[in-house]
């Protein structure tokens, strides 16, 4: 009798352990599933923003084909296509996303953005009109401003640009867009002020620096403004200023600026040297 009790006890303990393990297995599987969802979500975020755009397109296309009803994967595919320069295909994906259960106003913003990149301004305007007016974000107002610009609705564009700039801690891109809008309207002094604000906000934004020089050149201000710039940037900005001067008929000033650009560049500045040679050739031909 005494020798059989341990065996019975072991059997009972084994049964209890198995019962416990059965419940434990379910818990472990649930936990692992949650971890996998978290890991996949992190991977989706990485692929959507940090990965090579072409690789991101392949990743999300495979994933979306396998699970076409998962809106997160469709969003990732849409963003990846736009990042990869395939705006038309991206717009087609976003057109599906905005009709899916769980679609948000931000999805509509992404769709409008993709449409603008395909130059479908009317489509972008129509899409923005579907978004509730209470949804007020930097991206929404920046796109609204660009659409108003395309329709030459200058007052609306200015209002939207101003609102967008006030809704972000990094206003340089929208200030640069707003300045370019002013530049195309011939409002050169206003454009200069906006480009200067953009450069002050983001000193490494070369596009704003280049636009600032163009706005100054349009006012026949043929000196570089005080701002941080590398030697290469200085040469490129002098080149821009030179071309602006030449287009306005100030050829001798443009020639001098081209010479400065060639001298300032740390390496051979082919485009400036070619423009200078063309000027010299024309001068010789006229003499």
What does this structure look like?
This protein is an all-alpha fold and 287 residues long. Among the domains are: 136-222, Tetratricopeptide repeat domain (Serine Threonine Protein Phosphatase 5, Tetratricopeptide repeat, Alpha Horseshoe), CATH 1.25.40; 229-287, no CATH class. It is 77% helix and 0% strand. The chain is built from 14 helices and no strands. It has helices at 5-49, 53-66, 71-83, 87-97, 105-117, 121-129, 138-150, 154-166, 172-185, 188-201, 206-218, 231-247, 251-264, 270-286. Helix 3 (71-83) packs parallel to helix 5 (105-117), helix 7 runs parallel beside helix 9 and helix 9 runs parallel beside helix 11 (206-218). The protein is elongated. The model is unreliable at 1-23 and 31-38 (pLDDT under 50). Residues 1-21 form the signal peptide. This is Tetratricopeptide region. InterPro entries: TPR-like_helical_dom_sf, TPR_rpt.
């Amino acid at each position: 009798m005494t020798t059989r009790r341990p065996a019975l006890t072991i059997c009972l303990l084994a049964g209890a352990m198995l019962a416990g393990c059965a419940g434990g297995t379910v818990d472990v599987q649930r936990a692992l599933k949650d971890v996998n969802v978290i890991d996949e979500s992190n991977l989706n975020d990485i692929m959507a923003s940090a990965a090579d755009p072409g690789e991101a397109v392949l990743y999300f296309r495979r994933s979306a084909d396998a699970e076409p009803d998962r809106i997160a994967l469709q969003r990732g595919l849409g963003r990846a296509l736009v990042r990869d320069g395939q705006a038309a295909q991206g717009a087609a994906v976003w057109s599906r996303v905005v009709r899916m259960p769980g679609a948000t106003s931000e999805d509509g913003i992404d769709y409008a953005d993709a449409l603008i990149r395909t130059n479908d301004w009317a489509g972008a305007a129509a899409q923005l009109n579907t978004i509730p007016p209470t949804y007020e974000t930097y991206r929404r107002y920046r796109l609204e401003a660009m659409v108003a610009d395309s329709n030459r609705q200058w007052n609306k564009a200015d209002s939207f640009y101003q609102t967008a700039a006030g809704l972000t801690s990094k206003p340089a891109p929208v200030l640069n867009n707003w300045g370019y809008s002013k530049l195309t309207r011939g409002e050169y002094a206003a454009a200069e002020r906006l480009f200067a604000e953009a450069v002050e906000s983001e000193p490494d934004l070369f596009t704003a620096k280049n636009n600032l020089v163009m706005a100054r050149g349009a006012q026949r201000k043929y000196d570089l403004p005080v701002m941080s710039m590398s030697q290469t940037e200085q040469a490129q900005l002098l080149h821009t200023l030179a071309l602006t001067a030449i287009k306005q008929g100030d050829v001798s000033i443009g020639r001098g600026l081209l010479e400065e650009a060639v001298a300032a560049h740390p390496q051979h500045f082919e485009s400036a040297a070619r423009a200078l040679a063309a000027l010299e050739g024309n001068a010789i031909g006229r003499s």
